[in-house]
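Feature request, filed as a ticket because there's no other form

It would be nice if the structure record came with a short human-readable summary line next to the tokens. Right now we just get the raw output. Example of a typical job, pasted below so the devs can see what we mean:
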Amino acid sequence: MSAHPDPYPRIAISLAEQTLTLFGANGTPVDRWPVSTGLNGAGERDGSGCTPRGRHYIRARIGARQPVNTVFRGRRPTGELYCPELAEQYPGRDWILTRILWLCGTEWGVNRGPGVDTFRRFIYIHGTPDGEPMGVARSHGCVRMRNADVADLFEQVLAGTLVDIT
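Raw output as currently delivered:
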């Protein structure tokens, strides 16, 4: 019996390198971007502010056809576009911009289930203000990307795409 290739690309996120690599269906790297993961490091516990490790998949793609810098609250566009004036109005807000790839864990007791559920923790790959540093862990647990980068990635993946966070 011969194995058939996965019809979706695959994503690998390196917490140590602060990078996200997109692999094509044939397993070769297609693109690589700098990211910013959890300031509190790696971890799966609810309320930890850590980025969960292990095997995940994209459960939902949110923001198709929205303009770059669209502001999201509760996974819905607010009708605002991020700008310095808006940032001044809401200092300290964890901005979720442009696109959202909502992750779901696949490993029961590790990143899925009571106390450790990536999906219920609202862990996303999402855009962030372009002035935020990449390659440095500073998020509240999500995987932040530059807006143009997350829009590019969004167009290359589908719900069901596997995401490995190591």
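Something like this underneath would help us a lot:
The chain has a mean pLDDT of 94.
The chain has one domain: 36-159.
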